[in-house]
Amino acid sequence: MADWLEGFLAMRVHVLIRFGRWDDILDLPFPTDPELYRVTTAMLHYARGVALSATGAVDRAEAEQDDFRAAVRRVPGTRMLFNNTCSDILAIASAMLDGELAYRKGEYDTAFAALERAVALDDSLPYDEPWGWMQPTRHAYGALLLEQGRVEQAEAVYRADLGLDSTLPRPLQHPDNVWALHGFHECLLRTGKTGEAEIVAHRLRQAVALADVPVESSCYCRLETGPEAAVQEAAETGRPATEPARDGPARRQGRYAVSARLDDGLERPHAGEAVPVGRVPMRRLVLLLHSAERG
């Protein structure tokens, strides 16, 4: 029975990672029976590694990575999550954590190679509903590419995720999801593709209107402020640059200090208010992860 059911218990941490709830992750207790809850234990080590890395505790994150690898070795190959083996799912977690840690250590080429590997592993999972790997790998990859100024690469990642080219088959596309639209729109602004940016802005406006929480990046793993496009536009138009508060306690709790407008002047809900994701019930976050995020 554990081979068919235990893997579902590990999915909660994906919701917390998706919305940057680092402290909530670190507060989660480990299962009292790690021999029974082997996937849950491994996935919690993965989540803790991501959370510690994102909050600057790289040494502790590396220790979690060691514990994660040891836990993965204990997961039997018979343990399933619908159509996928938990071992295949945990292989994506391994590549994601490799990329996250290398990135925080400034080893960007190594980090992006690991994230590319995570994307390839994610793409190769047998089709399933809900998806076997819940946090879109391209969203993290694109966000960190943008943070390092690799805008053209990030644009290609987002364009494929949104299904705006023929790179991916339809089951791997996620049309009009707000996370990738936000990143794609920023890429277009930063590369001077203002005509296409205006078209995407309309789709982004619609996606933002349906979002339950403010979205300022395709992944909370993106921590730095000040993309050049927003700063440049602020200087040219007199509108405020639109950057979330990405450091300090508010960031670690998964809160955004939301500006009044997006880069292109789109009105935002909760203008000027720090909106805690914690106000949104966990059940609603899970539904968001299952539907809106995957398109």
Give the CA-CA distance, first to last residue.
32 Å
**Coarse structural class:** mainly alpha
User: Are there runs of 5+ residues with pLDDT below 50, and where?
Assistant: 225-280
User: What is the string of helix and strand elements?
Assistant: HHHHHEEHHHHHHHHEEH
Q: Helical proportion?
A: 40-55%
Average pLDDT taken over every residue: 83
Count of the separate structural domains: 2
Helical segment count: 14
Strand content: under 5%
Biggest sheet architecture? 2 strands, antiparallel
Number of strands: 4
As a whole number of angstroms, the C-alpha radius of gyration is: 19 Å
Shape: globular
| Widest beta sheet: strand line-up | 1-2
Protein name: Tetratricopeptide repeat protein
Organism: Streptomyces haneummycinicus
Region (Disordered): 232-253
Structure summarized in a few sentences:
The protein is mainly alpha-helical and 295 residues long. Helices cover 55% and strands 3% of the residues.
Structure description:
By secondary structure, this protein is mainly alpha-helical. 55% of the residues lie in helices and 3% in strands. The strands form 2 sheets. A two-stranded antiparallel ribbon has the order 1-2. Helix 4 packs parallel to helix 6 (86-104). The protein starts with a helix and ends in a 5-residue tail after the last helix.
